[in-house]
Amino acid sequence: FQVKSENRKTIWNTEEVPEGSEFDDTWDPREQPEYQILFKQCVGTEDVFFGMSRKDPSTACCEDMVIKIKLPETKYSDITLDIQDKVLDLRTPKKKLLLHLPYRVDSKNGKARFLSEEETLEVTLRVSRKFDFINFF
């Protein structure tokens, strides 16, 4: 069994590097803000009353992921947010959050809103799933 390598001087393969590691900055002194990951599910009467679909309350049946990030003493204009398929990168002058997401998301069609009275950034992302017997729409 012999593995062919294009370049013998490489010390690792690109598949071995975790996605989003280019955002890691271990020397950045900013603290990580408090955050919460919630899941949302579209439920209709056929689900609630008749049980016609195969949906259950698990995250496997949820369509959206909502990340709530507490950002005290932060202005909306100071927030930099970058969303990739599996990574959320948030930076403010005082806080930094690099979050490896539990599911792949549609990074092009998310929504973010800043709730100034709660000092919270709420990011809603559509979960990208392969179609199966539960996620069929």
From TrEMBL:
GO terms for cellular component: cytoplasm. Residues 32-127 form the PIH1D1/2/3 CS-like domain. It holds the Pfam family PIH1_CS. GO terms for biological process: axonemal dynein complex assembly; flagellated sperm motility. InterPro entries: DNAAF6 (IPR026697), PIH1D1/2/3_CS-like (IPR041442). GO terms for molecular function: dynein intermediate chain binding; protein-folding chaperone binding. Belongs to the PIH1 family. This is PIHD3 protein.
